[in-house]
Amino acid sequence: MSDKTMTPEGVVARLRSGMTIGIGGWGARRKPMALVRALLRSEITDLTVISYGGPDVGLLAAAGRIRRLVAAFVTLDSVPLEPHYRAARERAAFELTELDEAMFMWGLHAAANRLPFLPVRAGPGSDVMRVNPGLRTVTSPYEDGETFAAAPALRMDAALVHLNRADRLGNGSYLGPDPYFDDLFCEAADTAYVSCERLVGTAELTEHAPPQCLLVGRHTVTGVVETPNGAHFTSCAPDHGRDDAFLRMYATTPWEQFAERFLSGDEHAYQAAVRAWHKEREQQR
Amino acid sequence: MTVSRAEYCVVACAEAWRGDGEILASPMGLIPSLGARLARHTFSPDLLLTDGEALLVGPDGTVEGWLPYRRHLAMVTGGRRHVMMGASQLDRHGNQNISCIGDWERPARQLLGVRGAPVNTLNNPVSYWVPRHSPRVFVERVDMVCGVGHDRAAAVGARFHRIPRVVSDLGVFDFATPDRTMRLASLHPGVTVDEVRSATGFRLVIGGSVPYTRDPTEAELRLIREVLDPEGAREREVRTA
Description:
The structure holds two protein chains of two kinds. Chain A is of the alpha/beta class. Chain A has two domains: about 10-115 and about 155-240, Glutaconate Coenzyme A-transferase (3-Layer(aba) Sandwich); about 120-150, no CATH class. Helix content of chain A is about 30%, strand content about 20%. Chain A has helices spanning about 10-15, 35-40, 55-60, 85-90, 100-110, 130, 180-185, 200-205, 245-250, 255-260, 265-285, and strands at about 20-25, 45-50, 65-70, 95-100, 115-120, 135-140, 145-150, 155-165, 170-175, 190-200, 215, 225. In chain A, strands 1, 2, 3, 4, 8, 9, 10, 11 and 12 form a nine-stranded mixed beta sheet that branches. A three-stranded antiparallel beta sheet of chain A has the order 5-7-6. In chain A, helix 4 (about 85-90) links the parallel strand 3 (about 65-70) and strand 4 (about 95-100). In chain A, helix 2 packs parallel to helix 3 and helix 3 packs across helix 4. The radius of gyration of chain A is 19 Å and the shape is globular. The model of chain A has no long low-confidence stretch (mean pLDDT about 95). Chain B is of the alpha/beta class. Chain B has one domain: Glutaconate Coenzyme A-transferase (3-Layer(aba) Sandwich). The radius of gyration of chain B is 17 Å and the shape is globular. The interface between A and B is large, with 40 and 44 residues.
């Protein structure tokens, strides 16, 4: 069986401008930030990004890489509004497909099931239908005759997700309380790349955790990347929490300044810059 | 004993979940959270509460269930949930906006996004909490309909649509009018009808004699002050006038 391990740069080398990229996690929780940072170091642009949005969206929007965003919200959790995303939206920097959270989920299910859409009782009556004139409704063929939104399949060229553990074959487990929708992202994509806190042997995946923690199966995974602290500054329970101090700095620092200090080198340089920033901050207190 | 405005708001929010039975109380924001927990501790002991993440927990934090986002969404569509959401804008029909202010194509202010407001309002009871009652929030027309109000719900034949109440720092509102438009249901003590009227950007239905929001019992006050919010965070969200 094939060893699918690769580097963040190796993942990005498989991506192209103009692609549709799904990003797992939720808000400021378990985002594949190391892969997003690698994407930022590349020249790739013109992306359609599908995400339960957090700083992944803020970073890509600030760097001007997004042509279209598909999302129900963008938040940093402890800072409710994502400032870089807001700034980009307020200058109409990209197109937005704004969907309800449930429509988004059924769109992922539809794509994972190779269906063109799934009916969902959400959308009708709201302006989600107005701002997405391409959205269609579907009427129940049974006696009730109710009309639903037909949530379109959110099929993607590539999915990026971050998990706690993975083996070299692409099996991945989450050890926190919520799977989010990472398995669906992988199933809904033509290729999927899993970064993980720690690469382990297959047997070790179920040595300390029950088998139902195995969220992502290797048949849906193209590449595996070991990126310790790779979800930083979002949370990756129980390996690490959200770095709220760093998050607040990110939210209040001009983009160019943040990018220059933290994003000009590789992932090792990023992690070193974060450690240096925390050290400086401690010394100032 | 002097009851603060914030404490009246907690009680008014708690009342939203009275008689709801064994369903999930989903409060967004501090005062609704205190309200839900107050209701759980007193008159609605069967309510389910989350830890704010993926666990269902009892009042002492005992884990009793698992509710990750995908199961949470199933709970929404199953109807066994009553959420109290925030509102950046709200109109007389109960249409709510948390997405953006101004033109959606190029908003003057981008806010959170629609989140789950459309699915919530079409599937389970949705109440609203507004900590600063003003004409900027209570508007003639919202810029982006996220939560569906009564007029639009009727137009699409929404079978499970219900907006039990709106609580603000000035009073409690419902839609118990012939055309399902917003009505002043009670004033928090210390607030006048004129104050509410001038802080509302649309013509509010106001009856002949408006009651006051009920006082908390001594036991409820003790719970709020000693158990649920000993640090007094509630007084920062809503200040006593």
